[in-house]
Amino acid sequence: MRIVSLVPSATEMLFALGLGPEVVGVTHECDYPSAAIDLPKVTRDKLPEDLSAAEIDAAVKERTLAGESIYELDADALHELAPDLIVTQALCSVCAVSFDDVRAIAEEIDTQPIVVSLDPHTVGEVLGDARTIAQATDRQDAAAQLVAHAARRIDRVRVATRDVSRPRVVALEWLDPPFVAGHWTPQLIGFAGGEDVLGFPGENSEERSWQEVAAVQPDVVLVMPCGFDAEIAHREAEMHVAELATLGAGEVVAVDAAAYFSRPGPRIVDGLELLAHILHPELFPEPPQGAQALTVQL
Prior knowledge:
- The protein is an alpha/beta fold.
- 39% of the residues lie in helices and 15% in strands.
């Protein structure tokens, strides 16, 4: 089977299910695992490079209101790859090319590929996507093993944090303007022994004012700008240190959203374990291998 992935989280899931050798095309943002980096790219950015966070937000809002994606699909490359299966998503117009565009182009490809859309809103639905892909690729056993392993790791954290004192947590997935993380992130915070005081599990991320964030009196602020790694998140936090200082939190931590939070793939379980380390280091003294939690000095 020849598979094209049009969203980084799907690429990660495909490789986790042992389907890496069958993936023939990915997006320009697919950087994990390393084997995906050199595969042919079938998307590109429409936005100019080197925009500030505020400029990115304005451009995304403008294109979203106009019904346009911020990514462009290389239809010629997709035709040449002749896939049997295209894996995409319709959850977020910011995160991938338009689902309608993908479906329209797929109908014109000689191989008549199946188009599978992954649209998770919760931790359970993220893991359920493994079974969705497995159904289309005959990898049911691999999916069952992946889900069982993830469930054991999740249960380990939940049991360990069941009776702990829960810090009040705010997760910011953008800083200019502030956006509070939604979807699976509030669940991960709860599983890790925290209380997300602004995000709603399974619901969209929401724009808030700095005053609204300060009003909930968070103990911990997680800086996780969508698509950014920990170093860039820390740099963004330093650019907004005055605003972050007004929140009154005892701890502000920058994390790698691209790896562990904004992509609904297998590594959200690593994200859970990283959160458990941040919120309860007495129970989880070490972060997952390779993960960083960078403290922001206010």
